[in-house]
Structures are given as C-alpha cells and as structure tokens.
C-alpha cells in the first residue's frame, strides 16, 4: 500500500483515493460492516446515483436515517433521502428540511423525556449541530467500495479498539486530539453535520434510536472522516502500522509470557524432558 498524492481537479484520482481508503480500512482496521460514504446534495436530482433507492418508493413509507446507514453498510445498497423519505422529526429539523419550530428551539423535544427541566432541555438542544433551512435537498448514502461520487463524510462503524487504531492514524500527520460531544440522542447530526461543519474527525457513540431502528450493536461506535482528511488518515494508518506502534488486532502481550500450570501438569513436562534427553543420548 502507498500514500497517494492527489490532484483535486481530476475525478478519476479522487475515485482512486476512495478505493485506496476502502482497501486501507479493510486491510488495517477490519470493520465488520462496510464503511459508508455520505453526500449532502443541494440541487434537486443532480448527482444522485441512478440506482439509488428512495425509502418512500421501495418500502412505501419513510424511515430513519440510521436505517439507511444500515442498508448501505450491511446490504451494500445506495440510499437517497429526500424530505418525504425521513420519518425522524429531529433529523428533518437538524438537516434543514423544515424550519425549526419555537418549541424545539426552547428544548421542547428534549424535555421531559431526556431532561428534568425545559432549561436543561434547551441546553441539550443547543449542543446539537444543525444545517440551515434549505441548505440541502437530499442525502445520499452508499458503501464506500461502491461510491461513484465525491462524499462529504465517510463513516466507519467499529469497536472501541478499532476507534483507537483509527485515532492513531488520524492524528499522525497533524497531531493533537479528537474532541467530541456525546449527547445521547440524535447521533446522525454528530456523525455527519459536526465533522462536515468543523472539518474535523469525530468519534460518536450511537444513540438509543439508532440501536432500536438501525440495529446498531452495543459494541459499535462510529468514526467519521471528512473527505479532505482522507489522504492524511491513509498515510497515518499505513505508517503507524508499519512502525509497529499501532496495529489491529492489538498484539496481546500475554501470548509472550511463560505459562504456569498445576504441579500435576508439570510432572508430565518433566517426563517429556527426560524422554527427550534419552533420545538425544
């Protein structure tokens, strides 16, 4: 594997970069489901892949975004969400498909289920990153390996050890750390909007809704990568692997320890040593 320097004006090289990233993730991170690419579109049907499935059409009803994530990462489907495809009210609001009503701004969708007071609910509401109304028209989600478009965000579902491995790769070129906010709800904003607006990596703990509707496992977390960070994380993952400081699965030092057994087992070992000595003589 090599670090690919890209010319951002050439689409073919961009697609090669995405292919390389998918290979690096498969070889060095080994996620159990396919990494997914997400594109936020602003201009109607422009750039929507021809085989993309709309939930309201192929299912006959709208679904949650997190269900679309699972269709892409587990089935390998390309999914497109428009306003009539999204069943989750907060997602409609946070992604700018509808105007945010005053009761939501005041914390009314957080209180009383997630907050003791309306004031606490407003604080929890304010912490969620949001798009402006009309900023996008649709959301396209596809497996990274099948992506035919330049994504805004790549999402990798993985366990905590793989998150640590991705983090070491992500920080290799630029240093620092990854700061994240865990809200316990509406993880789709943290998975897409936060890394897009801040152009930073993000680590997300999927919320209860994603586990309920998207069937995300209790051992799964999400690592989000903005498209412009892809060359750097490729270099970081590959280099830290080659240096031996960070590899997945992590080598368990216990494999190098001298084992200790009960005395009865040790007697058999002594007999074996004597047998070997006799054969040598």
How would you describe this structure in keywords?
single chain; 281 residues; alpha+beta; six-stranded antiparallel β-sheet; 11 helices; 6 strands
Compose a concise summary of this entry.
The protein is of the alpha+beta class and 281 residues long.
Q: Secondary-structure map with pairings?
A:
Elements: H1 11-29, E1 36-41, H2 55-58, H3 65-75, E2 79-81, H4 89-94, H5 102-105, H6 118-126, E3 138-143, E4 153-158, H7 160-170, H8 187-198, E5 202-204, H9 208-213, E6 221-226, H10 230-243, H11 263-280
The assigned structural class equals alpha+beta
Stretches where pLDDT is under 50 for at least 5 consecutive residues are none
Number of domains: 1
What is the tally of beta strands? 6
**Integer-rounded radius of gyration:** 24 Å
Number of discrete helical segments: 11
Largest sheet: 6 strands, antiparallel
**pLDDT averaged over residues:** 92
Relative strand content:
5-15%
**Sequence of secondary-structure elements:** HEHHEHHHEEHHEHEHH
Strand arrangement, major sheet? 2-3-1-4-6-5
Distance between the termini: 51 Å
Large-scale geometry: globular
Name the helicity range: 40-55%
Report on this model:
With 281 residues, the protein is α+β, with helices and mostly antiparallel strands. The chain has one domain (11-98, 133-280). The chain contains eleven helices and six strands. α1 (11-29) runs parallel beside α10 (230-243) and α7 crosses α10 (230-243). The relative contact order is 0.16.
